[in-house]
Amino acid sequence: MKILIIGSDGLIGRIISRDLSKEHEIVYVDKQREIDILKEDLSKYFKGVYCLIHLAVDSRPEIGGEAEKNIEISERVLKYCANVRKIINASSINVYPYIDIFESGRRIDIHTPLLDLNKEFSRDKAYGRAKIVVENMFREYCREREISLVNLRFGSVTYDERFPVQDDGTITEADKQIVLRHNDLIRIVKKCIKTDIRGDYICVSE
After folding, report:
1. Which of 99, 122, 107, 105 is nearest to 170 (CA)?
2. Contacts of 176 (CB under 8 A, 6+ apart)
3. Shortest CA distance to 38 belongs to which of 6, 86, 62?
4. What is the pTM of this model?
C-alpha cells in the first residue's frame, strides 16, 4: 500500500514511519525536507496514494497564530485528497478540557463533551479549538466523498516515553493519564490502516 505521511519528520511521523516502511511504500512530506505545504503544488506527492496520514501541525499553542495556521495547512491538504481512500487525521486530547476533567477525578470517555467552540478561547485552548475545527473539516470532506476517516485524538507522545513535565518541574495527575507510548501509537495506526475502522478515538496508553 502507498501511504503519504504529511509531517513525516516530526516525532510521531518518525516513530510510525520506521515501522510502516517495512510493509508499505511511504511518501514523506515535511517542512524539514524543504516542502512548503502552503505554497507548493502537492499533487505529485498524492499520486497513487491510498492512505493519507495527516500529522502536519505546530503543537505549540502558546505561540500566537500557530493554531490558525494549523487550520490553514489542513485546508490546503484537503485540496489534494479526492483520490485518497483512507485518511488518518492526527487530532489531540486537547479537544477536551482534560486537565479540568482529571483534576476533578473524572475520566474522558465517548460521552465527554469537547471544548465549546462558541466560548471565547484563551491562548492555551487555541490548539484544541483548531483541532476540533480540523476534525470537522475532514469529517465533512470525507462524508461527501465516501472516504474512510479516522480522527485519532492522541495523548502525549514524548521522545523518552516519560511523563510530560510542567514548566515548574512537576508532573500532574493529568499528565500521567494522557501518555501514549510508542508501541501503542504504532499499534493504533497500523490497525487503522489494515481495517475499516472509522470515527473518532481517544488514544492513550493507560
Report:
1. 99
2. 163, 206
3. 6
4. 0.91
